[in-house]
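yo

u said u wanted the structure for the complex thing, so here. seqs first:
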Amino acid sequence: MDLALATALPAIPDDNAPVPGTLQITGSVLRPMALSLDALRAYPATTSTPFDLRCYTTQRFIRAVEPYRGVLLTDLLNAAGLRCEAHGDFKRMVFLAIGHDGYAVPFTWHELFNTPVGLQAMVAYECGGAPLAEADGAPLLFSGADLVPAPRHLKRLARIDARVLAP
Ligand SMILES: Nc1nc2c(c(=O)[nH]1)N[C@H]1C(S)=C(S)[C@@H](COP(=O)(O)O)O[C@H]1N2
Ligand SMILES: [Mo]
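structre next:
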C-alpha cells in the first residue's frame, strides 16, 4: 500500500492490542475475554491475608502488604472455559500471566486446579479496603501460597494466555 495513503487512513482498531487496565484471557480457551477492573468486580470476591512482599533474587524485604480483594484465577479460567482439542489436553496446560511490561510468569493447570496454590491465586483490584489504581499495579496478580511472593506478584497484569505444551 502507498505509505502516504496508509498514514492518512484512520487507525484501525486492533482486537489484539492491549487496552490499559484491561485483562485479556487468550489462547486455548472457549471464550476469550477482555475484562476491565469493573468487570472483575462482578465475579465472586476472595480476600488474601496480609503478607510481606519479598524479592526472590535478593531475598530483600520490600514492604508489608494489606489484604487484597480480588477474583480467583480459577474462577476467571472457568468462565473462559479451557479448550481441550485432544483428550486430557488440560493436563499439559500452562497459563502464562503477562504484565504490561512483558514480565511473565506461568502457572500449571495442576497447581491451580489440583493443589492449594489455586485457592490463593488471585487477580486483585483492592488492597486494605481501598481500590487499586493502575499506578498501584491494578489489575494485580498475587499467588498467596508462594513461599516468596514477589516473583508471582505481578503488577499491571495484561493477559493470561492458556497454552497446551507439546510433549
Ligand atoms: N509487571 C511486573 N511485575 C513485577 C515485576 C516486573 O518486572 N514487572 N517484578 C517482580 C519482582 S522480581 C519484584 S522483586 C517485585 C518488585 O516489587 P515493587 O516494584 O513493587 O517494589 O515486583 C514483581 N512484579
Ligand atoms: Mo524480584
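The helical segments are 3-8, 37-41, 73-80, 109-114. The first strand starts at residue 23 and ends at 27.
cya
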